[in-house]
Write a structure and sequence with these properties.
By secondary structure, the protein is mostly helical. The protein has six helices and no strands. The protein is elongated and about 85 Å long. About 5% of the residues have low confidence.
């Protein structure tokens, strides 16, 4: 009986150590796998951004805009925020550094795109529970709304998000009808 008791204790200790090692290794490398997967999703959008820089901003900005919008709708919030922030970079470059495209992109259009993009970013940051970035993006979206539509004042977050929700529903409906 003493032999069986020693055997049971040994098996229990080995099982416990194995379980602990499994949990530690799983947490370490499982977490790394998730981060790596999200990084790979972000790389897709970086490739799109690099194409923009190589081919010219005017030619590819609509493509990147479409891809960042898809990320906003379909990807995890962290990937969507990354893509939308990339779109903001491109819009700001068009607004400040590439005035030669003003015949294609009026300032009002770029301001409207910045308004929509910052509003969408605020929605994703809400999902990520980052209230500082929610507030920052709402503030920027409202300021761009005044530049894009001076005659139509969007004065608060609720009104802004209603506009975005309505716009997103209309876009989704138009894609279904195509």
């Amino acid at each position: 009986m003493f032999k069986n008791k020693k055997y049971i204790i040994t098996v229990t200790i080995v099982f416990t150590i194995g379980t602990l090692l499994g949990v530690i290794i799983g947490a370490k490398y499982g977490g790394a796998f998730i981060v790596l997967q999200q990084f790979n999703e972000m790389e897709k959008f970086q490739e799109s951004k690099n194409e923009l820089e190589e081919k010219g901003f005017a030619k590819c900005s609509a493509y990147y805009s479409e891809k960042s919008y898809e990320a906003y709708l379909q990807e995890k919030p962290v990937v969507g925020t990354w893509a939308l922030n990339g779109e903001i970079d491109i819009l700001n470059i068009l607004l400040t550094d590439h005035k030669e495209y003003n015949d294609l992109f009026s300032e009002e259009t770029l301001y409207a795109d910045l308004m929509f993009t910052h509003a969408r970013l605020s929605k994703l940051y809400e999902k990520l529970e980052n209230q500082n970035l929610v507030n920052e993006n709402i503030k920027k979206a409202l300021s761009y709304s005044n530049l894009a539509y001076p005659e139509y004042k969007v004065e608060n977050k609720q009104k802004l998000l209603e506009i975005i929700d309505r716009l997103d529903k209309n876009i989704a409906a138009s894609k279904i009808n195509q």
